[in-house]
Amino acid sequence: MNLNKVMLIGRLTRDPEMRYTPSGSPVTTFSLATNRYGQGTDGEKKEYTDYHNVVVWNIGKRNLAEICGQYLHKGSLVYIEGRLQTRSWEGQDGQKRKTTEVNATEVQFLEPRSQQPREPAAEPVEAAVAATPAAHGEETSRDVDPEDIPF
């Protein structure tokens, strides 16, 4: 029996980068920092930070790569679930290179949208605002209800 499953909660260390493969498939990459605690050589409690490269593809009809590229930003708190994958390639200098990354199958945003400093693109926000009670003349305490966001 084999199992290759990764679950991480952390913050993005940089803005996500979305690219397209030659066949037109979107892929989004970013780095995630996670913290752990242990004892240093002096016996004192110490915090350690690990960095993980994450790759997100669209899965079926789920536009996961595009959503991550559009709504995530440096500092976003996210839950990532996926598998480890190691890639090899030859660099421009002729040297063989390897990297291990998390190929994400699930991404959950863990912060309310009101705490995210970057405004998302206008089209999805307009669609979400149109579905909120405020758009129908009712009072609301926030601009967009997170339940109305399609992901």
Structural summary, described in words:
The chain is mainly β. 11% of the residues lie in helices and 44% in strands. It has two domains: 6-112, OB fold (Dihydrolipoamide Acetyltransferase, E2P), CATH 2.40.50.140; 119-151, no CATH class. The chain has two helices and six strands. A five-stranded mixed β-barrel has the order 1-3-4-6-5. The model is unreliable at 119-146 (pLDDT under 50).
List keywords for this structure.
11% helix; 2 domains; 5-stranded mixed barrel; 151 residues; OB fold (Dihydrolipoamide Acetyltransferase, E2P); 6 strands; 2 helices; mainly beta
The computed structural class is mainly beta
Radius of gyration: 19 Å
State the CATH class of the largest domain: Mainly Beta
| Coarse morphology | globular
Report, as a whole number of angstroms, the end-to-end distance: 33 Å
Could you describe the largest sheet, including whether it forms a barrel? 5 strands, mixed, barrel
Total strands: the figure is 6
Number of domains: 2
Run of helices and strands: EEEEHEEH
> Which stretches are low in confidence, meaning pLDDT under 50 for 5 or more residues running?
119-146
CATH architecture of the largest domain: Beta Barrel
Q: How much of the residues is beta strand, in percent? A: 35-45%
